[in-house]
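[step 3/7] fold_predict: job queued, chain A
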Amino acid sequence: MSDRFNHGYHNAQRRDAALGGPLGAGFVLAIPTPDLDATYDLWRSEGLPVTLEPEDAYWARIFYGLDPDGYELMFEQHHAINEPT
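[step 4/7] structure written:
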């Protein structure tokens, strides 16, 4: 964990909001989902803002969005793990 002043942000707008906003503005809640595309489509259909479009990270496919109160959520669909046979 890091504090909001030493944390890496995915864009300058989110950094400025976290540093200038109320306490808790830099917090990101990670929510696992089995179907990121369906979650993204639902998020968009509800008219909620997306701060990072879907992309592949090393551990999962992810996207970020703001809830109605302005808090940032990260949705993640973990990549399949290829177990040795």
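[step 5/7] annotate
Helices lie at 12-20, 36-45.
The mean pLDDT is 84.
exit 0
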